[in-house]
Amino acid sequence: MRNVNLTCVRTCMVVAEERPRIALTQSFSKIFKDLGLSARAVSTTFGCRVNVAVCLQGTSGPDPTTVYLDMRALRHDRVRLVERGSPHSLPLMESGKILPGVKVIIANTETKGPLGDSHLGEVWVSSPHNASGYYTVYGEEALHADHFSTKLSFGDTQTVWARTGYLGFLRRTELTDACGERHDALYVVGSLDETLELRGMRYHPMDIETSVIRSHKSIAECAVFTWTNLLVVVVELGGSEQEALDLVALVTNVVLEEHYLIVGVVVVVDPGVIPINSRGEKQRMHLRDGFLADQLDPIYVAYNM
């Protein structure tokens, strides 16, 4: 790209409806570094259907912080910070600074009560620009009201909140932005609907997928979901088809060693089979529907039932 100068770009937002992808923001900054794009200009923002702008990381605020969580505690919805490089540690970048006029609270998905800083819960948001509902959904008024207009079961029972459907936690910090306001960080861990309930614990698909992708250079992409209480791992094979059988043992072993889970089904497919939306986020439920309808045209399928 000749005659392109990006030094004037102050803010470049990486929009996400899930956990911020650290590798993506770092790669984006590296690719456009020679064109003058400052690494500080690349920041994250989090929004969802009930509120498209919950928080963002602007240039006037402090640099986004990355914390390291104990994955074993996270499976029990507990937030325990550990040192970088600790065994079973998970790096998590903050999604950004909560915008003015937006209130965020972390709530228990079952009791609808507020949670403390050491607990993982659903992110609820209260704001004048919250969505009021879906135009194309009819019926199920009670479910509709619970999603867009809900209240805490105790504590502040007057404020009306919208449920984002994403799990996360708030971390109080002493950092201040350019205006002198305290910077409270929101950390989004993942979608509530896509979490895997296995062995009485909550697993997040992205963590298992990361382990699988690291296990072999020929695995181009990976997605996981559950089917009748079985863990299904779909991997895209970037090498020759002769390697498909070798991947089954590797995938099974890495998931067992790092997450203590037994893989029920391993599906090896061609590159591009795992559906990706416009934001680059995996559509795991669409993939699951395709698997159940026998539409994936796999290279190899291994059942461990």
From TrEMBL:
Residues annotated as domain AMP-binding enzyme C-terminal: 194-296
GO cellular component, one term: cell surface
Gene3D superfamilies with a match to the protein in the record: 3.30.300.30, N-terminal domain of ligase-like (3.40.50.12780)
Family: Belongs to the DIP2 family.
Record's protein name: AMP-binding enzyme C-terminal domain-containing protein
